[in-house]
Amino acid sequence: MEPRNKPDEGAPMIRLGPDAPSAIRIESGRLLLRPLRLDDAADIQRMAAEWEVARYTANIPHPYEPGMAEAWIRSHRDDFEIVFAIERRQDGAFVGCIGVEPDMKTRDAEFGYWIGMPYWGAGYATEALSALVDHVFATSDVDRARAAAMPDNRASIRVQEKVGFRYVGVKLQAAPARGGSIGVHVRALDRRRWLELKAPPPLPIVLVAAVALVDADGRVLIAQRPEGKSMAGLWEFPGGKVHE
Q1: Which residues contact 69 (CB under 8 A, 6 or more apart)?
Q2: What is the pLDDT of residue 22?
Q3: Does domain 21-198 have CATH number 3.40.630.30?
Q4: How far is CA 60 from the centre of its chain?
């Protein structure tokens, strides 16, 4: 998640869960989403300085000067934007950042994320976005999740689509780090569709067919397996085969 312009003071925001947002920790299969710490600054400084990371964001400057990461970490306010470090649970490696900006006025929440280049291609962005979207819908009254991406950022678009986001349109987004406004594609996932995606699949339908021998008097012909044979005592149709 990247810095944004601050909203008007006093704008109502949605609190996520009963605890302060800064205390939220979200676990997924491979990842931990946790609050940023000042000791994350070195990893952020190194990863955000890569042009391939910064180029698809609106607010990560390039070059990324020394000290910018620490200043960015210190700048966060829980009531405006909740930002998490993405940490790999296996070894504690810092993978990237993800954040959500919820707004009570619209009941929308905007999501953003970036992954450091050493961790591209492992599915971490999809896993982190899915985990945070699930948490937001489960613990708040947000009705719609939104995410934006530049049209040529195919990797980010695929991430959003895998989580269930659908294309809703194009908008101009302020991008001071890119020299002005840029056109981005917006995708959204509403609560109803999220619930459908999370519902367990229906149980399979099993069709069973049986054939019976009936004599001229309408009696079903069955026989009991004799003692000494496998599965003795079970009833079967004459000539039928019973296998263990």
Answers
A1: 40, 41, 42, 44, 45, 48
A2: 55
A3: yes
A4: 23
